[in-house]
Amino acid sequence: MMMRGGVVDPAVLSFETYARELYSMGEIIAGSKKERVIVEKLRSFLEEIADEVLLEPVEVLSWRDDGSYIEIEGLRCRASLHPYAERFYVEGASLYVDEPSKVVKSDKLDLEDKVLVVRAPEDPDDYAIMSWVAARRGALAVIFVENKEVFRRIVMLRDITPCLGRSDAPPIPSVSVTYSRGKMLVEKIRSAKKLNLVALGSSRRSIGYNVIATLSGSSDSLVYVTAHHDRWLTGFSDNVVGLAIILSVARKLRDIKKRSSIRIVSFTAEEGGEPSYSPFYWAYGSRRHIVRNAHLLDHILLDVNSDVVARGTVVASCIGIETARLVEEISNEVGVKVGTELGQPIYDSFSFALVGIPAVTFNTFGTVLKSGVYHSDGDTPKLLDHETVKDIINVITEIARVVDEALIAKHFAKSISDIVGNLRKRLQLPAELLGELLRVSQWLSSRIDKFDLQFLNFVKAFNRHVYGSGIHSSFTRELEVREESEIMIECRKEMISIPDCSSSTPRLCREKLRGLEYIAELMSMKLAETRSGIHHHI
After folding, report:
1. Which one-letter DSSP state was computed for residue 28?
2. Cα gap 350→348, rounded to integer Å
3. Which of 15, 192, 194, 398 suits 301 as a labelling partner, its CA being 20 to 30 A distant?
4. How far apart are CA 245 and CA 227, in angstroms?
């Protein structure tokens, strides 16, 4: 616990109180009875702090594992079923593969009518890919032998590439077993003729809830402070910590003057729950919130999200060309070292980015991933560093306190000016295009002091095109922007790729000349649209 002159830091004290109670509730799956329990707990916490607390119902796909297990030659061992597998009773011969990549790269593996037993891959994304490949090769099921004494849950569907569109439950079950049980299982396989796997999964339509609290500020503009409350297995870093952080921030903000009003929101269905089994299954609760609150979009200045926090360097995953500059400035002012990275589509902040709203997720995702406990029951308080938590609470509190329209405008205009300067130095642009770019930059700079809705619409329209559906998937392919996974499988042609915000403006400015030309044209186009009165829309 952090101390200041022998006194417990109040921010950390409130964090520990919240975290302890929330962690004790165990696995929280969207739409389950336990979700309703944690929602009521969050509501009670926030009613002590906020001016108003609301529950927003969201139709979700709720899933459960009723105790899946494996039997082989007298050995019965527990197995954690990967969502969204349904009920299966599998009996058949088994094949053990020690090297995970062989499942995809080798054409010599005969998986037809076999249960594949394979050492778990390092990259969590590869679980679903390997199961998908195994199913296509006729396997009956997949058993992952974990590299640690943990159980794990990774979402698996019929289609594996993140896409907008309908899919279905996986055609075969996949489970994980702990390292020690896995060793025993592999020994049995050498002599056993068959293996039984009983998968006890089930799905149903249900209702999850977003919890929404409001702290009134000096204006009607809104700064969102967000996290998600659903979690797989123990889920301490993902996302008990994030929840406790935003509750602690709310408590700190309660009695101080704020330039904008604050919305503290805990989202349902971040880990999964999209009712149509869409391969874009995550961040569903936040996407539904955006759709249902379209009337507020003109007032939302920024989303500050917290997810997957444990220890190590605090990283701000920034979406919006102005966001990294803003985060760095405020972090320096409060004396906290924060690294910034290009915004990723894996957090709830991405839902805001899709409609052009600047967003940032504070995380230590890299540390959690390297620890090997991601989405496992090894994700416990042992990994937590209180200094990391304190830093994030302080930075988020200050951002929420000071952000207003003028601050967003200032950083956006400066970022555009930097881009234009970069363009002029690195490209031989046509005189007409260069003149248009300079005109855009000068127009933005001239409006910083007289910020209005037109400026904010320009900011959101620009960011939406850079981070949202305005960029066609062929554009990101030309830029060689792809998921950083060892194994890639192309998605079905009739499905639409989700926007990939790793093709963001800063990266384009550093690496891709064609991207710079695109940004230049986009800037010119969006200024013309904004002046014509075109507003952002869902």
Report:
1. B
2. 5
3. 15
4. 9
